[in-house]
Amino acid sequence: MTYSTLPLSYCTNVHPGRTVAEVEIGLDQYAVPVADQYGEPLAAGLWLANSVVQEMHQSPGLVTDFAERLRQRGLVCYTLNTFPFGDFHGERVKENVYIPDWADARRLQYTWDCTRVLADLMPDDVVGSLSTVPLGFKELPRAENFIDQAIGQLIDLSTRLDQLYQNTGKRIRLAIEPEPLCILETTAETLAFFDQLNQVATDRNLLDITQQYIGVCYDVCHQSVEFEDVAESIESLSNAGIRINKIHITCAIQLDDPANNADGREALVRYVEPRYLHQTIARTTTGEIHRYVDLDRDFVLSPQRPFRDAETWRVHFHVPVNAESLGPLKTTRADLRRALEAVGKLDDAPHLEVETYTWEVLPDGGTTHLVDGLTAELTATRTLLADLKNNSGIRNSR
User: b vs e for 69-89, b when ≥16 Cβ sit within 10 Å of the residue's Cβ?
Assistant: First the structure.
């Protein structure tokens, strides 16, 4: 039973970062003060937009200089969030965050460009990871041979990652992140896709390399929104030989008894906002699952069947991981505990990263200073992990 002993990471996609200078401003304004308050080594799970990565590659020595400045700040980096390709802090991100998808050559090139940056940033004695889009978004148009194209590009990337390791000793793995309403949404869909991926890789005599480098980023919020048993989900991925390379420590919003919970619906409508997509899934008393693409005011205040009569709604809105409730709303923090307990039983120790990117759009986002909020999340996560270790006899592992 293992947990990673690498410093706990928090994802910097919570900060704007359209240029290298803007990324560094975010580190100085938030990451460094958070590390000081947290009181333990902290990893910056950097989000580097395509514009930032291109700037780094176009300026000789910039990546090396950036790595040195990261070290001087007392921060380490062993993982990147390569999910958002473009501006993640524009007025409207929504479904654009899934573009380009994994059938698009731009996604492969961006991911490879990020890989080369991470190879220069991460310590020599650790394995790196890159989280990425769950192939694409179901509501967007795509080619009939989309899956074949995506598989081809993923296998291409795995061979590049292996060559990087052979040349430099730096091992970096991809972590595909299932998400509601995406091509890879449920655990069952993820298992089925990896069966296809592995079959093609076998036909090309590349199965070992593909399994070594292509795995999953398990975002606890996402699978909670799907009403999955997160412990069974994690176990099933592991049993199928799918490497879980990264865990996003996240929580979702839960609304119980929506038909009779007017206070809860009034609270939830405050989370309707124009920037990010907030997929909503309802479960009925008979276990039926119903999906709604995005929160909107009419849907929340005047829900129609079957959502009106559902037992529970869960909403893809990352909320602070230390919150058990949000006024009359609940969170899925109980699932977070179950998921991390299951993670501790894996043979390999995934990277652990807190990823609440929604602080700016929370209804009370302006009342909690971001440094204090992030510190509270990290501290609560540290306490939770310590409690799980103490209760389960889990040993540390790198």
Answer: ebeebebbbbbbbbbbbebbb
CATH top class, domain 2-251+331-397: alpha beta
> DSSP strand E in 257-367: where?
280-283, 289-292, 312-319, 325-326, 329-331, 351-354
Amino acid at 352: L
Tell me the percentage of the chain whose pLDDT exceeds 70.
Answer: 97
In 202-350, DSSP assigns E strands to 214-219, 244-249, 251-256, 280-283, 289-292, 312-319, 325-326, 329-331
Q: Give the integer Cα–Cα distance in Å for 190 and 227.
A: 15
Cα(352)–Cα(11) distance, integer angstroms: 10
Nearby residues of 339 by Cβ (< 8 Å), 6 or more positions away: 218, 220, 223, 230, 231, 234, 247
- pLDDT level of residue 393 (50, 70, 90 thresholds): low
Closest of 85, 179, 93 to residue 138, by C-alpha? 179
CA angle 60, 62, 67 (to 5 degrees): 140
Q: Is the pLDDT of residue 397 over 50?
A: no
Backbone angles phi, psi at 280, to 5 degrees: -125, 130
Instruction: Give residue-wise pLDDT tens across range 256-313.
Output: 999 999 999 999 999 999 999 999 999 999 999 999 999 999 999 999 999 999 999 9
Element (H, E) at 338: helix 333-343
Beta strands 128-132 and 79-81 are: parallel
CA distance 10 to 381: 11
For the chain, the 3-state helix, strand and coil shares in percent, each to the nearest 5, are: 45, 20, 35
At residue 368, the pLDDT reads 76
Query: Rounded to an integer, what distance in angstroms lies between the CA atom of residue 273 and that of residue 296?
Result: 8
Please name which of 267, 251, 263 lies closest in space to residue 323, comparing C-alpha atoms: 251
Band (398; pLDDT cuts 50, 70, 90): very low
**Residue 61 has what DSSP assignment?**
T
Residues 62-72 pLDDT 10s:
999 999 999 99
Each residue of 360-377: pLDDT tens digit?
999 987 567 999 999 999
Q: Within a 13 Å sphere around the CA of 249, how many CA atoms are in the beta-carbon half?
A: 28
Q: At what angle do helices 333-343 and 370-392 cross, to 10 degrees?
A: 50
